[in-house]
Amino acid sequence: MERLSLNQITTKRWSLAEAIEGCAASGVGWIAPWRDKVAEIGVEQAAKLLKQHGVRVSSLCRGGFFTGVTPDGSPVDGVADTREAIDEAAALGTDVLVLVVGGIANNDLAGSRQRVADALGELAPYALERGVRLGLEPLHPMQCAERSVLSTLDQALTLAEEHPAEAVGVVVDEFHVWWDPRVEESIAKAAGRILGFHVCDQLVPLTDTFLGRALPGDGPIDHRGLRACVEAAGYQGPIEVEIFNAELWAQPGDQVLRQVIDSYAEHVD
Amino acid sequence: MERLSLNQITTKRWSLAEAIEGCAASGVGWIAPWRDKVAEIGVEQAAKLLKQHGVRVSSLCRGGFFTGVTPDGSPVDGVADTREAIDEAAALGTDVLVLVVGGIANNDLAGSRQRVADALGELAPYALERGVRLGLEPLHPMQCAERSVLSTLDQALTLAEEHPAEAVGVVVDEFHVWWDPRVEESIAKAAGRILGFHVCDQLVPLTDTFLGRALPGDGPIDHRGLRACVEAAGYQGPIEVEIFNAELWAQPGDQVLRQVIDSYAEHVD
């Protein structure tokens, strides 16, 4: 259980303080906070609560949106926002900032991918100076248009390799990559660049492109198989359980965390 | 316009006879019938109507489901069913049968992929004898669990290459492959094996994993770019417009076909 980390989105109803307390009370030593929840109490107070409860931060969620648009189409300066996120990560005591790179701007896939590469070039030195590594998380291809023109681990790795491993790496989230016929090979190639491993399952049938996730064991994903791959590639860090699921989100946080712990113990650990 | 083919699912409300008549009346020289619609009047009558109206068949939809389960979880003998589909394709005068290989059986992705490879080994000689080529159509990764453990063009090509090009090839459907960072490279590698090119667009936001398609031009897909790729790889055959979309399906067939012709002329041709 010592590697289990609660990605805060999983217990969406909990404030950051509640989530930190919940983890501490249940013996979960890691958490991955979301920035909107951090902002509710401020970074300093968040850092203080984390220290007080002895809960460490596996990663901060999230920077990115380098293509200039949010999923709902609003304009955003992803580079400026990610600079702030890098500072927040450092202040929270984690060296991993997860990046969701952004969807397609102006129906221009190639141009949007180029904007991502350009943004990384701007941000990598800034992150390196602050001891924070940028974790490129490829998202499922069904989220390409709205959220991420980065769709496979191979593609993320190619981008990351333009920069020092101390500055840019990749995050392996099962939900986004499990279907990929090249996933095992890509994980092996990512050795030395893997900054996080996120677990959850996929609902079948998959009817919702955003909320179609489930507790480990409730779908077709081979958790122990993928875990073996990331471990063979040298990753020994925390394992985040990150679940977007409307039914779980409707439940009280402690009830959700109990299910997270049980499913992790049964299907991942 | 001479390469435009109406994939029959696009005008879902039309019977096969109506679709053939609609194509003939609009100067569309090609159609891709679906087997359930063919079955309503029988293969012989279908072949007779096609001949009578001078409409040719670009491909028959579809065989497959080799993993033993349909999308709703019912058992199916995909190999036996596909043998029948091969005979039907030959009787309808087309040399292309599209295959949707089937989703994950028993939560075993690797085993399900193996069943697909095994089924192809059984069926390729049968298809070759009858002059029908099997067109492996990779489906979008969001349909991996329910419909197709074949998710990328690369993966389809690797499977196809186990067999003579006269027996097994691949079908490039934009909706399923547009997001793939390797799509251009994969299409180039598929030279000599491309048996069909299907066009449509993707709705944004993508809220439905099955019906999220749109007329060409109503989404982020670069139709002329992908068409240039398949043509550079030597494909000069019919181009099917295949759209799963609830709003279109609610409209009368002739109204849909008019929009298909207009959007094809503006964005694909």
Automatic annotation (TrEMBL), chains A, B:
Pfam families per the UniProt record, alphabetical: AP_endonuc_2
Keyword Isomerase set for record: yes
Domain of life, per lineage: Bacteria
Keywords for the protein's UniProt record, in alphabetical order: Isomerase
Domain (Xylose isomerase-like TIM barrel) ranges: 24-259
Presence of keyword Coiled coil: no
Molecular function, one GO term: isomerase activity
Protein name: Sugar phosphate isomerase/epimerase
